Amino acid sequence: MAVRTPDPDPSDSGDELPEFGSDGVSDASNPGWLSEFELAEARRRLPMLYVEAVPVRTDGSGQVTDIGILLRATPLGEMKRTIVSGRVRFGETVRDALFRHLENDLGPMAFPLLPASPAPFTVAEYFPLPGVSAFHDDRQHAVSLAFIVPVTGTCEPRQDALEVTWFSPEEAVSDALAAEMEGGRGALVRQAVAHLGLIR
Amino acid sequence: MAVRTPDPDPSDSGDELPEFGSDGVSDASNPGWLSEFELAEARRRLPMLYVEAVPVRTDGSGQVTDIGILLRATPLGEMKRTIVSGRVRFGETVRDALFRHLENDLGPMAFPLLPASPAPFTVAEYFPLPGVSAFHDDRQHAVSLAFIVPVTGTCEPRQDALEVTWFSPEEAVSDALAAEMEGGRGALVRQAVAHLGLIR
Amino acid sequence: MAVRTPDPDPSDSGDELPEFGSDGVSDASNPGWLSEFELAEARRRLPMLYVEAVPVRTDGSGQVTDIGILLRATPLGEMKRTIVSGRVRFGETVRDALFRHLENDLGPMAFPLLPASPAPFTVAEYFPLPGVSAFHDDRQHAVSLAFIVPVTGTCEPRQDALEVTWFSPEEAVSDALAAEMEGGRGALVRQAVAHLGLIR
Amino acid sequence: MAVRTPDPDPSDSGDELPEFGSDGVSDASNPGWLSEFELAEARRRLPMLYVEAVPVRTDGSGQVTDIGILLRATPLGEMKRTIVSGRVRFGETVRDALFRHLENDLGPMAFPLLPASPAPFTVAEYFPLPGVSAFHDDRQHAVSLAFIVPVTGTCEPRQDALEVTWFSPEEAVSDALAAEMEGGRGALVRQAVAHLGLIR
């Protein structure tokens, strides 16, 4: 079974952020926009820079109580679990990319608290060939800066993410959940829970 | 001039948290409470575990805009600048100690966002003998877990902290400010600003 | 069954590092040395500062290939697994304490590569009452700065540590190994493996 | 004055690693190789993934004593200071890229000790437009994972890096040195020294 990442940047095909020209060529007015053809070509030649976020709920003392996992329908209609994930665009800061993808995947009322420091808690490397690392994406070589992001509001996923499910840290690291996750991201969730000091 | 840390645990002498018995002996009902004499003895024999916090303000994207520095009167009436700092008690979690000292030093309406992860951004070692490390406390050997803590509310210092002053990251790392800070904590503020990616 | 930490500072009772006076009182020439009675008293009143190290082997590119676990006989003759662990003394830097305990537990030919940065990968909190955190020590409240330390030489444990066993990262996070580890340190090993990006 | 990064991947034009076809078109046998034209195009459209390393010398206890800074001649014959820096190739792990650039810039006898963990100590973002961040590269948008790497052997820079100069941590954070460094990397060196706990 081909395990694919979610569409890397769901908003790219949205109206408000038309990175892809409808005619398959890049918009001449912005060299940072790529046609679908050009992006597909670049994916065969260069590592793509991604950001990923594990959404969490915290109690009043900052202790994490719940881990948020997205449920998403793949293009083939299969249901897969994943985390917030997407590409960094040309000219965009990592912080802005992280904010944009959090809003895309969790909705405008999630009120995420982005990290103050630029250092990710880990770096995940996705290769098209399975087995090179814990992570796999048959479409591209992607390198992802992974962050843990408390959210304080209400999550209403947009686009192809259907819902956010909240799990206890114990449930989040279970084999059952890991088996449902796309591209090996169960390992990323476990790393996040371990980083929080909540693995036993 | 003797540079001293602030009283390590201002609340210890407060009514609501009577760690020190008024008669100078420990409260028999709680072996974790120390008399002033016993605490003074322990300070000559054991490293004391501290937590410290650099309070920060952030913008909507989590980017730090301001660094909070406390102004405090020393027992000798001298004005010194410092950060949130205090001892971890017997049986108390690091998270609870951090929360308690933030509330003591910034007031109950500061609404600090404590870090989700237990790992400090750095560890500061204070020695009674100057020059062993960047940090100095002529009263004790203290080892401090240092955190960066966004605060979202209003700071109203209690007890001996007189006020919180907000500085830009550039001002916070200036030589002038560092010279006013207790025990070498100017170095700790610089490490915090560097950790935030805001040093130039 | 009482789960105990290893003796926190095996060298303290050794000939070469006589922290405890043989007569049970502290050595007047060094106020940082504690009698056994005084140390026992302090343990009932103050959190003890510890350092811990997960020894690892790496390949030529720095990738961790093996995790080192100590086998130790408890005072009751029970065999338990643990990691390098010990107390920070008065006046001692964290780095020196880490080096001292690595040498005590792995021998003088282990050639450990101590971390360049003072920040631990995590902080483990041991409480006398089980269940407060993942970690437990029925003798004391200890707060431990945990580091991952590559060793390049030959490990020959001294004193009560009987041997070092090298496990693959997969084996090191197994439930079977975690069940054999003292004081909940299986969780600490899992956090270390996760920090290394090697958990799946 | 245009401040440019060093050629991002000096080895790309070397004989042993012919990423660029001599005729300006990509090698059909490896779609991950880019022609110079294609790479130039990609640089106008996508953020480039980089790794950077601050080489350090340590003493026997792992404490950093010296910071290594490269001296390099720009294509215009200007002398600039920099650190180890280069692009991650398609299909290459971050660890392999880091190792390759360390060898390129420090020579085969440097014997670097690569970090065990995949998390960088910071992420540096280089934008073609100055002022967006502390870092600037007029040729591209590059996002760099920055590591601190102890080297134990002899550094003999190859290619366009002329020499490695070792500075004390105090010298390494001086304004004079920062002014000589390419693309704002003085800030990156300061962040590294701060991360090591060596800034005062």
TrEMBL record, chains A, B, C, D:
Task: Show the segment(s) annotated as Disordered.
Answer: 1-29
Name-wise, this protein is DUF4916 domain-containing protein
Q: Which Gene3D superfamilies match?
A: Nucleoside Triphosphate Pyrophosphohydrolase
Tell me the organism. Answer: Microbacterium keratanolyticum
Matches recorded under InterPro entries: DUF4916, NUDIX_hydrolase-like_dom_sf
Q: What is the lineage of its organism?
A: Bacteria, Bacillati, Actinomycetota, Actinomycetes, Micrococcales
Ranges of Acidic residues compositional bias?
9-18
